[in-house]
């Protein structure tokens, strides 16, 4: 019997989105909720802005981990929620408020009924960047409580509530962020021959990038190069001496990622020669692909198929990224999509997942983790 009001918790978390490794209010809020569950078989430890919650199993053979992400995105919310973000310029637009609430719901269940195996619940910062998974894995509590299996979910706005989906093997892409600075010579708008215009250079370069996917990546493989931000210049009648583009690269294979980066570097050399400028590239955070353990993904799908509470299916892979891939590189486990029925997608300022997804998420996940304890 749940004593937590999970809908209220989700709404309160929704109001305080914070950037990666700055989730201080979120951490304090989660610690406060966790403090109401304290039982002798439960331990709580903080790591940076993240949290480890460990439940001692009563007859343990292994440790099963559950991971949620915590950070919000830098965007202005446009949902008309009464409980919209109170943090100007930030929004939980990737469902991490729902993910954290589900993780709290699981903690409550394992606090109320001691699990058979040990359970480690990870509240992980900075999934959207620069990536909290890799450093959290190196943290002392993680090494001390090292899990044998690890699981996570992500809301899927396009799937109806009550649906779960995953697949054996590759689920999410390899990712790399992309930051490029162009530096030339600023000047008077009326004297272009005396300047090196970085607005023209950056615009040209963004267009040139489009040929990488169509001409350089094996058509039987797959890749995405998206520029999400472009900025340069200071005034309409001054030629810009500096410009910057920011984006992300997504690939199905490590080989395609290598190829895309190689082409970007070659194109930058070309841009320097063509537009008389200097360029600097920074690859930012790179995320390991999310590669589900085959046996566990099959097990999850067949368990879900037998459940009367969810509709399940084996989905296609997606070009989204997730630093949960770092956990799966070393530890058997899987990630699955949880239907959340929003007319607007992830990273959309109007994302409105249905809150019933929370109860589905807690219920199905708890049932599956208990099934893993008997396997
Ligand atoms: C599920 C999801 O939307 N994840 C993010 C992960 C971002 C990775 C990194 N900051 C990048 O932009 O490459 C996504 O955008 O897929």
From TrEMBL:
The keyword Nuclease does not apply. GO terms for biological process: diaminopimelate biosynthetic process; lysine biosynthetic process via diaminopimelate. One of its GO terms (molecular function) is N-acetyldiaminopimelate deacetylase activity. Its cofactor is Mn(2+). Pathway: Amino-acid biosynthesis; L-lysine biosynthesis via DAP pathway; LL-2,6-diaminopimelate from (S)-tetrahydrodipicolinate (acetylase route): step 3/3. The keyword Manganese applies. Its EC number is 3.5.1.47. Mn(2+) binds at residues 94, 96, 128, 154, 347. Catalyzes the conversion of N-acetyl-diaminopimelate to diaminopimelate and acetate. Belongs to the peptidase M20A family. N-acetyldiaminopimelate deacetylase subfamily. This is N-acetyldiaminopimelate deacetylase. It comes from Salsuginibacillus halophilus.
């Amino acid at each position: 019997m749940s004593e937590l009001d999970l809908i209220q918790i989700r709404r309160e978390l929704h109001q305080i989105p914070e950037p990666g490794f700055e989730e201080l209010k979120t951490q304090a809020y989660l610690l406060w909720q966790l403090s109401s569950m304290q039982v002798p078989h439960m331990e709580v430890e903080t790591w940076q802005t993240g949290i480890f919650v460990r439940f001692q199993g009563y007859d343990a053979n292994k440790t099963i981990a559950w991971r949620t992400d915590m950070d919000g995105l830098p965007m202005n919310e446009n949902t008309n929620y009464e409980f919209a973000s109170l943090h100007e310029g930030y929004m939980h637009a990737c469902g991490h408020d729902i993910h954290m609430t589900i993780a709290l719901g699981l903690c409550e269940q394992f606090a109320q009924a001691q699990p058979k195996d040990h359970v480690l619940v990870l509240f992980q910062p900075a999934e959207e960047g620069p990536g909290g998974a890799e450093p959290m894995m190196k943290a002392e509590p993680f090494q001390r409580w090292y899990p044998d299996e690890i699981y996570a979910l992500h809301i899927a706005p396009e799937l109806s509530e009550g649906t779960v989906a995953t697949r054996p093997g590759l689920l999410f892409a390899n990712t790399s962020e992309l930051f490029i600075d162009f530096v030339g010579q600023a000047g008077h708008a009326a004297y272009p021959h005396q300047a090196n215009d970085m607005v023209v250079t950056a615009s040209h370069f963004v267009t040139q990038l489009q040929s990488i996917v169509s001409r350089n990546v094996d058509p039987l493989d797959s890749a995405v190069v998206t520029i999400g931000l472009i900025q340069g210049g200071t005034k309409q009648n001054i030629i810009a001496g500096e410009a910057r583009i920011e984006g992300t690269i997504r690939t199905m294979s490590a080989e395609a990622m290598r190829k895309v980066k190689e082409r970007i570097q070659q194109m930058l050399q070309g841009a320097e020669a063509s537009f008389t400028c200097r360029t600097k590239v920074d690859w930012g955070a790179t995320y390991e692909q999310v590669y589900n353990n085959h046996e566990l993904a099959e097990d999850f799908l067949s368990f879900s198929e037998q459940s009367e509470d969810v509709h399940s299916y084996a989905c296609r892979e997606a070009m989204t990224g997730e630093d949960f891939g770092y956990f799966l590189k070393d530890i058997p486990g899987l990630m699955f999509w949880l239907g959340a029925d929003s007319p607007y997608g992830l990273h959309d300022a109007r994302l409105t997942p249905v809150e019933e997804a929370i109860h589905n998420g807690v219920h199905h996940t708890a049932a599956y983790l208990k099934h893993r304890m008997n396997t």
